[in-house]
Amino acid sequence: MPDLIVEHVAKEYPTRGEPLVVLRDISFELSAGENVAILGPSGCGKSTLLHLIGTLDEPTSGTIRLRDENPFSMNEPQLAHFRNRNIGFVFQDHHLLPQLSVLENVLVPTLAEGSPTDEQVARARDLIGRVGLAERIEHRPAELSGGERQRVAAARALIQNPILLLADEPTGSLDRTNALAMGNLLLELQRQENTMLIVVTHSLELASQMSRRLELDDGSLAECA
Ligand code: ADP
Ligand code: MG
Predict the structure, then answer these.
(1) 42 in ligand 1 pocket by Cβ < 6 Å?
(2) Fewest Cβ atoms nearer than 10 Å: which of 16, 93, 183, 188?
């Protein structure tokens, strides 16, 4: 059975008049070790969809199941724990904490459960090495380039061994060379970790690096050529 099952998901936002329908009917599935790009122009609802899959917001209708669990049946603390344990996020802007070192930033998701264990610190060091920043482990975000900061964000997203890695325009703030490198790095990490990876982007170039492409158009998804 696929690890992620999205079925007939719709999302509308209330307005003073008619509700704004952003997603009409979204269905797709993904299994461990698979990656997919979701493409579409700015404003078409990519971030909305990623927020729903990431359990940061609830669909208006339809279901999302992750490893056969329905996150939206959980209470807030259960859901926060579930999200922290199962889902890693990479955003367009790294969202690193400026006062923390690279190592500390990567360990942030583990702090929800108290101090990081030796094993978690070892995993953080390993991930930082794999994203090519072993020499920068004590640096602060301000001392890194944009591409390096996104690589820290990727390591942080993986610290809890998530089953699902979500990236929202992860190359949106990078130049072309760094964008290509970031796309390749996400794929390499996804393969090594055998997670699922969903990248939403308006960049055809980034989308073309993924194994599969879906296009979000008028609130529905279609397979791209
Ligand atoms: P994309 O990521 O593809 O650029 P978004 O998912 O951010 O698109 O937004 C899709 C549409 O939904 C836009 O018209 C946006 O203005 C609207 N929207 C997004 N979030 C909200 C919200 N919290 N309340 C109302 N409208 C929203
Ligand atoms: Mg967006």
Answers:
(1) yes
(2) 16
